[in-house]
């Protein structure tokens, strides 16, 4: 899978050269650096229960949303969009990516393993402090907070049942979904800069799908 990824990465840059747009090369090469930094930031945060919501959003902006942002931004450049439309499409991708990652992190605590292709609690097993856990620690009582902190530090699934109960009791899953909907709504608002078309409709449908998906 690593070699296939390297091939796709190299091929994408070949295609960018063929297009001959320095702006697109600038956007995507810059995004590649940000995504790598985001992945490293996530690795450094593993096992750290002191991550707050702002730091979490910085991480998912880098490791996930930047990829969406670069795709929509480069598309705007290639289409010759106006400066206002270019900025709107850049932000559309950013907010869409944030919404997608928020739902992905939510599904780690309430998804179905057969349909998701991964087990419930995989993030917890790796010690990742995602938003459901961050919010649960911020709003739970002292004992609940201690349990979440212990689970993040230790990793693994020894405390999965207790953690699932806490994220439900504290409303952390509902909160995470609300934040995802907020991001999707911000993405949809950017589409007002585009003329009505079936393409804009498809982009709106994509924003809705990002928060409504179950897998």
| Helical segment count | 11
> What would you give as the CATH superfamily?
Farnesyl Diphosphate Synthase
Computed over alpha carbons, the radius of gyration is 19 Å
Q: Show unreliable segments.
A: none
The oligomeric status of these chains comes to: single chain
Could you tell me the number of beta strands?
0
Structural class, by secondary structure, is mainly alpha
Looking at the structure, the CATH topology is: Farnesyl Diphosphate Synthase
Level-2 CATH architecture? Orthogonal Bundle
The total domain count is: 1
CATH class: Mainly Alpha
What tags apply to this protein structure?
215 residues; mainly alpha; Farnesyl Diphosphate Synthase; 79% helix
């Amino acid at each position: 899978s690593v070699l296939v990824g390297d091939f796709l990465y190299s091929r994408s840059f070949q295609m960018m050269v063929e297009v001959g747009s320095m702006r697109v090369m600038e956007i995507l090469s810059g995004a590649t650096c940000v995504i790598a930094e985001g992945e490293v930031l996530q690795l450094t945060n593993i096992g750290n229960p002191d991550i707050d919501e702002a730091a979490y959003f910085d991480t998912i902006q880098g490791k996930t949303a930047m990829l969406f942002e670069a795709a929509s931004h480069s598309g705007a450049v290639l289409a010759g969009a106006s400066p206002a439309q270019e900025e709107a499409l850049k932000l559309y991708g950013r907010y869409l990516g944030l919404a997608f990652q928020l739902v992905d992190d939510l599904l780690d605590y309430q998804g179905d393993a057969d349909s998701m292709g991964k087990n419930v609690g995989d993030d917890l097993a790796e010690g990742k402090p995602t938003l459901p856990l961050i919010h649960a620690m911020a709003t739970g009582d002292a004992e609940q907070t201690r349990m979440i902190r212990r689970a993040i530090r230790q990793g693994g699934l020894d405390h999965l049942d207790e953690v699932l109960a806490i994220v439900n009791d504290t409303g952390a899953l509902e909160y995470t979904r609300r934040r995802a909907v907020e991001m999707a709504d911000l993405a949809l608002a950017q589409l007002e800069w585009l003329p009505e078309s079936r393409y804009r409709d498809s982009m709106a449908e994509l924003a809705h799908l990002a928060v409504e998906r179950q897998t």
